[in-house]
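Weekly structure sync, notes
Attendees: PL (lead), two postdocs, one rotation student
Agenda item 3: pending single-chain targets
PL asked that the sequence for the first pending target be pasted directly into the notes so everyone works from the same version. It is reproduced below exactly as submitted, 300 residues in total.
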Amino acid sequence: MSKAPRRPPQLRGRVFRGSVAVSRGLLTRNDLRSSAWRPLFRDVYADAKVSITHVVRCTAVGRWLIPPEAAIAGRAAAGLYGCGTPTASDPVDVLIPRDARIGPATGLRVHHGEIDPDDILERAGVRVTSPARTCWDLARWLDVIEAVVVIDAILARRLTTVSALREYALNRAGRRGWRSLLRAVDLADAGAESPQESRTRVRLVLAGLPRPETQWIVAERGRFVARLDLAWPQFKVAVEYDGLWHDDPEQFHRDRRRLNRLLGGDWIVLHVTGKRLRDDFDGFLAEVRAALRARSRSSW
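Predicted structure, written out during the meeting:
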């Protein structure tokens, strides 16, 4: 019968440095190779019974793998703020001062840059870039659509405001990325309720269409009829993103019933799915443009 792996009570349910556990006599190097422990990074291990999330990995990085003046940044920082849903296997973005260096570590995405004193906050014992700095880095590191997706979520959680982000960018005029942040902020909208809604809106605007309203409420004689993901109320044209929430059949039917009432009135409601955005955005764009043209005298 094989011997059960050693699981000292001091390490159960914990994430720890392997070298520290060995130096204290809790484990041997061979013990660390057993099924009881899961390697996360170089010399960082977790009890195999611990559920490893992106937050757990960010916490380990912040505590043990980066210098004190560095911080969790970018999408990883946004995830710590509850914005976005990074998976456990996604790389952890870290921001390091220009003159600092860290050893190679699989699973990290290292960025060097100037860090202002107000750019770093502490969250649950981990240094993380402030919401404003996080938005700036996202605007520098991602394409504008993906940057706006996360900035929308940060705005929706009221971690910062559009005016505060504009001021942050203007105060850094001349530094790399300040114009990118202004552009992303001009496209951002706290009303977006999902990443795909954000992507749909930004892609339509970048294609030259007028900016739609988000989560537009349609009422009839003071009574609620429907809430529309994206709407041009002056033209009574709307776009609805059909997403994963349609796994709830009852919700699907309730929403479609409301939309059918709109279709029976003066509204044109166009539906789009993730597959359509990915494979046939140009076709969808043509449909939206045609609907807007039919309701206006513009030549978008």
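Discussion points:
- Residues 147 and 226 are 29 Å apart (CA to CA).
- DSSP finds twelve helices and twelve strands in the chain.
Action: rotation student to compare against the earlier draft before next sync.
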